[in-house]
Design a protein that fits this description.
The chain has 336 residues and is mostly helical. The chain has one domain: ABC transporter involved in vitamin B12 uptake, BtuC (Orthogonal Bundle), CATH 1.10.3470. The protein has 13 helices and no strands. Helix 2 crosses helix 3, helix 3 packs parallel to helix 8 and helix 4 runs antiparallel to helix 7. It is globular and about 65 Å long.
């Protein structure tokens, strides 16, 4: 793939520009909404807080929402890039591992049988469900001769996802009260999330970010082909296991906070490779920034499309991502 940014100086400039765009979108997310505020209100909310609606909206709603969108977008972008590299599947998303379905199943199960109603509890339950589902898929995809292969991982994820989805739908059918409580979360949303929820998963997030940067060079070697990687002395089984664990950590923490948001991990790696080529060290950085920019922009759009009401952010990402998915699939068919 021919990169549009062909040298280190251009790639660093691109990172700087994306960072500025991300900061601008955070500012727009904090300042604009149903309650009219400006940059002075944003500053005074932390320096001269007086309990007004403007200050409360900024401190308790908009700043946490913007930060959650930033972190979750970066997580999904990096997880998608790693997943596409691991499975060698250009349309791979975190849903392929059954992570979204597993987290949803655990949330609905906890509500149905244990009447859990704490948002913080939802975070940890969803994270646990996502992690266990990812590990189960990875284990199933590694059974048999030859160990883990992209097709076995894909089939295992589809099978486990379908199973979890059917059980989830069954519980929702017989318990309408649970449906009302989790419908907005199941659609994916960063609204109503607190900084405490984000801080609860940040240690995992940081481990995932650092791990993805450390393993980027090994991913470059793995992309040359498994036989070549082994010939160069790489222990491919351990590299794949590390990649899988990082994906589970990043995707699980994202689902735990914001619910199952689709297509971010599909779109951003393609855009990153379009800009910087196949060097995974750059792809990781660009996927993270593009993921944040994409999710922040989608969240702002979700608020303004139907103002004063708002759409779940998952609806907006699906609206943008579905045509892109079709484009990638048809592009692959034409090449075939």
């Amino acid at each position: 793939m021919n990169a549009r940014l062909t040298n280190t100086a251009l790639k660093l400039s691109g990172i700087f520009i994306l960072f500025l765009v991300m900061v601008l979108l955070i500012y727009l997310s904090v300042v604009y909404g149903v309650i009219n505020t400006n940059w002075r209100h944003a500053i005074e909310a932390y320096t001269q807080f007086n309990g007004t609606n403007e200050h409360i909206a900024i401190r308790d709603v908009r700043v946490p929402r913007a930060l959650v969108a930033t972190v979750v977008g970066a997580n999904l972008g990096v997880a998608g890039a790693l997943l596409q590299a691991l499975t060698k599947n250009p349309v791979a998303d975190t849903g392929i591992l059954g992570i979204n379905y597993g987290a949803s199943f655990f949330i609905v199960f906890a509500l149905t049988f244990f009447s859990v109603n704490s948002i913080m509890a939802f975070t940890w339950i969803a994270f646990l469900g996502a992690a266990l589902s990812g590990l189960a898929v990875y284990g199933l995809g590694s059974l048999g001769r030859g160990g883990m292969t992209p097709i076995k991982l894909t089939l295992a994820g589809a099978a486990l996802g379908a199973l979890a989805s059917s059980y989830t739908n069954g519980m929702l059918v017989v318990n309408e009260k649970v449906l009302d409580e989790v419908l907005f979360w199941l659609s994916g949303s960063v609204a109503g999330r607190s900084l405490d929820m984000l801080m609860a998963v940040m240690p995992f997030v940081l481990v995932g970010w650092v791990g993805s940067l450390l393993i980027a060079g090994q991913v470059n070697t793995l992309l040359l082909g498994e036989d070549v990687a082994r010939g160069l002395g790489q222990r491919t089984v351990f590299v794949k296991l590390a990649i899988g664990l990082i994906i589970i950590i990043l995707a699980g923490s994202s689902v735990g906070v914001a619910g199952p948001i689709a297509f971010v991990g599909l779109i951003t790696p393609h855009l990153a490779r379009y800009l910087v080529g196949i060097d995974f060290r750059w792809v990781i950085l660009y996927s993270a920034l593009l993921g944040s920019v994409f999710l922040l922009g989608a969240d702002i759009a979700a608020r303004f499309i139907a103002m004063p009401r708002e759409l779940p952010i998952g609806v907006v990402t699906a609206f943008l991502g579905a045509p892109f998915f079709i484009y990638v699939v048809r592009k692959g068919e034409l090449r075939a």
